[in-house]
Amino acid sequence: MNPAKMSAVILAGGKSSRMGRDKLFLPLGGKPLISHVLDTLQGLFAECILVTDRPQSFSGFAVRVTEDLIRRPEKNSLAGIHAGLSMACHDYVLAVAGDMPFISRDVLLYLCSRGSDEDVVIFRDGPHFQPLCAIYHKNCLPHIEDMLNKGHYKVADFFPSVRVREVDVSSLQSLDPGRISFFNVNAPEDYEKARALIAGNDNLDEGGKR
Ligand SMILES: Nc1nc2c(ncn2[C@@H]2O[C@H](COP(=O)(O)OP(=O)(O)OP(=O)(O)O)[C@@H](O)[C@H]2O)c(=O)[nH]1
């Protein structure tokens, strides 16, 4: 799969309840946390879209901003994937969480290189998928809509209905030796860890986590 012929979607909604304040705007390395993913994706993919349930918050960002189409009160990154896939100009869409500041271009290019004509291309770490750093084809849309309408929000639940290419994270060893790509900022202690990582004086001891 060629990123120059794909859309990228940044998931930027949610409640930040574990952080206690909007985590996407926390300063990190001289810019808002969300800007790290944005800067990584822009220029690499043909198009970049930020999907959120609060579009007014992102009006100052130089990116196309679109709103979740199906709103539910529950925590719902799947609604963001749905809106991104619906609005994207291209059939293949990389969806990445906005709270994942250390995702690298090398890792994303590797993921693209592992896909050919599947509906989902996704990293897998043992029993766990990385659904918020994965490629989805527009073929997934009816299955995602069905899940949202039934109130099922676990992304992987529609995978049995589509063709999925799993990419083992162990193949990333040389591209991501510190295993920080999938580190996401949820709680205040994660933010402190991210600040330490940016400052270059910390490692992730547990191989990254989501
Ligand atoms: N567009 C969109 N993105 C979402 C939504 N919920 C979560 N996200 C994004 O998905 C990613 C993972 O979100 P979580 O950390 O699981 O949820 P959260 O609501 O942001 O945070 P918590 O309330 O602490 O669980 C983050 O980048 C969020 O910005 C949503 O309803 N719509």
Automatic annotation (TrEMBL):
Identify the residues that bind GTP. L11, A12, G13, K23, D68, D99
Enzyme Commission code(s) on record: 2.7.7.77
Record's protein name: Probable molybdenum cofactor guanylyltransferase
In its UniProt record, a GO molecular function of this protein is:
GTP binding
Q: Where in the cell is it found?
A: Cytoplasm
What is one GO biological process annotated to this record? bis(molybdopterin guanine dinucleotide)molybdenum biosynthetic process
Q: Which gene encodes it?
A: mobA
Per UniProt, Mg(2+) binds at D99
Its domain of life?
A: Bacteria
* GTP-binding in keyword set: yes
Q: Tell me which family the UniProt entry assigns to this protein.
A: Belongs to the MobA family.
Q: What is known of its domains?
A: The N-terminal domain determines nucleotide recognition and specific binding, while the C-terminal domain determines the specific binding to the target protein.
Which SUPFAM superfamilies does the entry mention?
Answer: Nucleotide-diphospho-sugar transferases
